[in-house]
Hints:
Layout: H1 7-16, H2 24-28, H3 47-64, H4 89-111, H5 129-153
Helix pairs in contact: 1-4, 3-4, 3-5
The protein binds nickel (II) ion.
Amino acid sequence: MPPSKDPRKVIHAVFTREIPHMSVDEAVADFPVKHINTKPPNVPYSFWHLLEHIRIAQWDLLEYVQDPTLVSPEWPEGYWPAPDATTDAAGWKRTIAAIKKDLRQMDRMLADPRVDIFAPVPFANNKSVVRCAFLALDHNSYHLGEFGILRQVMGLWPKTRSSK
Ligand code: NI
């Protein structure tokens, strides 16, 4: 099949299938539960805080172009859990499930022929769906890479995993 010339199809494929970085599932695979609240040395947030930050920022970006009544959190405090907040195994799973649910929603939105992903959204300061999706994925990629590196620094990858 020749490459699609429809920018929507290219964007959908790149954003949902051709992402050149670790997925959420890969980043959190086999993560030891006893370290979900660990803060690596010289890092003011824990592994769970990092996932929550990804979740909140992504949720906010997606809601921004869908919900005219959205009240965004205060920047930057509202985009992170409180510095002393902790979670348990169930909370860790909830955060991951929420990130993945919002990613699926973004996937649907980018593929939906009824959504003009390039159109300015009046209630979102005329920002477009594609712009918000791009920002969310860019932010995810940055912090998932950070998550992976901090796991490496802390020796929290399974011994069998290649570090390349
Ligand atoms: Ni960030």
